[in-house]
Amino acid sequence: MKKYKQFCYDNFGNYYYSNQIVRPRGDMPIFNAGEIIQIAFCDDEKVCLDLLVGYTKKYLSTRDNDIGQVIIDRYTSGEELLEAYKQGKYYDLIYLDIRMDKMNGFETAREIRVFDNKAMIIFVTSLGDYILNCFEYRPFWFIIKPVSEEKFIYIFNRALIEISNTRTRKYSFFTKEYGYLCLDIDKIMYLESVLRKINIYTAMEQYTYYANMSEEEEKLKKYDFVRIHKGYLVNMAYIQRINKSNVVLKNSMVLPLSERRYKYVFDSFTSYLAGCSL
């Protein structure tokens, strides 16, 4: 078997796994009955796909059904995974191989972030040197091949804990058409104020309800939303860049930026990016 170049983060991981793998029951993910967790594995090598899916199913079989329903999908290319997203599919956790033919893992992650800012991405690679280039896609973790079962289970369990923690990030509002709705905050791209109504936008949907933008800003600012204009409140996770007179989102949508708010928005976004890099 070919011996792959080791990377400092992988050495740190090996130390951490060997010292932390036996964990108390209190450090386990907690899900309500009936909750669904959706996981995607994307790799053009069938052997690797079979291995990681096998590790997952083996681990879940030991959890006494306390994790809820887990749906596992397999993809053999980045294009196939992105097509699923275009058809409305979303995932809580994605294992993404970096080295794939045609569209590689980085290119796939970049496109996924246009549709979905919430999904946790774990990069899988045989070359540790790639790791330094992956952070702009905000991965949850990375795994160096060959992947041991012990290492996989530790990272998988940490990912499930994070998913269970983020399930509480919900935003509720009342619409005339649908009644009360509850959205994942991480899926909200921006809010737009038109007269006395608020249009709330996700990557695929739009809803309208009656509310005051200042009140909505007060509710959402703790979740990294920034007021760029009297009529727009934006989730900074979806901002691609800030210009003098507008804000460009990752899906190429251009929103107006008021001159008096420019410095505040720029400083807020800079602080947000700094926090993401920690």
Provide an overview of this structure.
The chain has seven helices and 15 strands. With 278 residues, the chain is α/β, with parallel strands linked by helices. The chain has two domains: 8-166, Response regulator (Rossmann fold, 3-Layer(aba) Sandwich), CATH 3.40.50; 170-276, OB fold (Dihydrolipoamide Acetyltransferase, E2P) (Beta Barrel), CATH 2.40.50. Strands 2-1-3-4-5 form a five-stranded parallel sheet, with helices on both faces. Helix 2 packs across helix 5 and helix 3 (78-86) packs parallel to helix 4.
- Count the domains: 2
**Mean pLDDT value:** 83
Which range does the strand content fall in? 25-35%
Structural category = alpha/beta
Main pleated-sheet profile: 5 strands, parallel
- Determine the CATH superfamily of the largest domain: Response regulator
Morphology call = globular
Helical segment tally? Answer: 7
Q: From the alpha-carbon coordinates, what is the Rg to the nearest angstrom?
A: 20 Å
Low-pLDDT stretches are 1-26
Task: Tell me the helix content.
Answer: 25-40%
Q: Order of strands across the widest beta sheet?
A: 2-1-3-4-5
End-to-end Cα distance? 35 Å
The first-level CATH class of the largest domain is given as Alpha Beta
CATH-defined architecture of the largest domain = 3-Layer(aba) Sandwich
The sequence of SSEs as H and E is: HEHEHEHEEHEEEEEHEEEEEH
Number of strands: 15
Question: In CATH terms, what is the fold-level topology of the largest domain?
Answer: Rossmann fold
